[in-house]
Amino acid sequence: MDFELRRAREKLEKEQKERKESARRKLEKERKAKEEGKKQREAIDAERSRRLFDAAQAQLKADQQMQESLLVGRGIMFYRVFEAVRCQGSGDKIKLPASCFNELQDQGAFDQGPLYFKLSTVHQGGSSEMIDADKEKGRSTHSGVLEFTADEGFVGLPPHVWQNLFPTDTPNIPLIEVLYVWLSKGTYAKLQPLRIGFSDLPNHKAILETSLRQHATLSEDDIFTVNYGELVYKLQVLELKPSSSVSVLETDIEVDIVGADNDSEKTHENVLKPLIFGTLESGTVDEGHYTYYKFTIDNDTWEKIASGDAKVEVRIEAEPNSGDTDIYISKHPLIFPTRHQHEWSSHDIGSKVLILGSKDKSLEAVTYSVGVYGFKGTTKYQVSVNVQDDSNRTIGQQAVSSSSPMDMDTVECKNCKRYIPSRTLSLHEAYCSRHNVVCQHAGCGVVLRVEEAKNHVHCPKCEQAFHQGEMEKHLKVFHEPLHCSCGIVLEKEEMVQHQASVCPLRLITCRFCGDMVQAGNSAIDVRDRMRGLSEHESACGSRTAPCDSCGRSVMLKEMDIHRVAVHQKN
Predict the structure, then answer these.
(1) Residue 538 counted as domain residue
(2) pLDDT tens-digit series, residues 257-280
(3) What is the DSSP string of 318-353?
(4) Counting beta carbons within 10 angstroms of the beta carbon of residue 291, is it exposed (0 to 12), middle (13 to 18) or buried (19 or more)?
(5) The last residue of a domain, from among 330, 356, 390
(6) Residue span of the structural domain in which 237 resides
(7) pTM above the 0.85 mark?
(8) How far apart are CA 15 and CA 231, in angstroms?
(9) Which whole-number Å values give the CA distances from 42 to 27, 33, 45, 53, in the listed order?
(10) In 3D, which of 514, 404, 441, 512 has the Cα closest to residue 523?
(11) What are the C-alpha distances in Å from 178 to residues 74, 79, 140, 159?
(12) CATH number, position 289
């Protein structure tokens, strides 16, 4: 009996204990659930508060951006994001979709004058910290607009704009922010060439002006390109006034060009080294390469040359056991003479001398370039330019004997064709027949020593006479086919004439802008062709300028006719 009561009591106590533990676990679970719910409500409230704060901040930022956009756009709000694509063109004018035209027109942007835009790169992906770090490195520039013909969602960027926004790598999807802005007219610009030699260009500021004519804006730290024939120069914008971005349309800008940064572009591009009269300059040139120099004939020196009292001597002395060179000379604006384009040349083996005198019609008081071309091997040389004074020469000096050979008792030698006194003719003929030989080549007839005759040869193409050792170089220089960029193939002499007067790709100086441009084909307009204008000059001369006398806007190519017809000025 006691055993059963004890078992019943234990069972009851166990059940009570289990109910208490179950109640405790239930209470603990409910407490945890309440705490978790409280945390979730707090997190939701915090997230809602953060979102409200972010929305307020974004709205504030958007309002600020709108105010700033309205301020920089003078009341015009235009902001779009496009995918950038490359397009052909020079300068900084971009292509926008047609929808942008309607949006800008509705806001009256076209009534404000030329359109200017700020272009900024858009960084994609990554955390907010990465994005903020990238934004500090984001690039921006300014541009005008060329036309509204781009596809919707895209903006066409010319090479100048593309290189300034994406100087190194291009992202997979290059996104660009386009913001309409108003820019003040520029008054001052400081530029720095990224390579030396830009200041050697003749009238380089006129060339710079021609290049800037293709731009609508300039921004600090931008790099723009100046083309001079086949040469390309890059200039960096260091400083602008009155602001860091300015308009260059219809304005006069004071331009300062500082010295080139030698570390910016470490290349082996052509550079003109100055030559001083009477001073030797040492140098080395490799086969197939050029080394260039320059010298200037001033007005005083030119007066002496024109009167025949002086000549200019350009001499190059090669070191013994060195290679071989050729020398080419041109006058500016052709600043880098080549095998195809030059005024004077010398191809002698070893040392070379070129004499420029008053008989040279191309000679005048300008700057000249000397190109030393490595023809064979690596050559060490010394080059110099001297003015030879001929004013002390004896004028009108009589010969020792004024009698002609025919006035004396002379007979013509049958071998050398010289007139010999008859009393010594037999002795001379005996000696001449043993030691002298007459070249039998048609039209030559030169008298040679017997030991020299074996080295006397004639070119099979032009029939000129040469020493045997000079023939190989002559054939290579004068008769090896040369390929012109326009596609024609000619020998050297014909190629020089072709590139000087016929080739459509030859460089000429535009009579209106002063820039070196390709001649191109004949002008389309018949009147321009009759004036002798090239294709470029026909277009360049269509620009207008105010007449100095009446202030009327007249096309540059019509200015002479206007002055004669209206103002009777020759």
Answers:
(1) yes
(2) 887 755 444 444 578 889 999 899
(3) EPTT--EEEEEEEETT--S--SSS-SEEE--SSSEE
(4) buried
(5) 390
(6) 188-257
(7) no
(8) 102
(9) 22, 14, 5, 16
(10) 512
(11) 16, 6, 10, 17
(12) 2.60.120.380
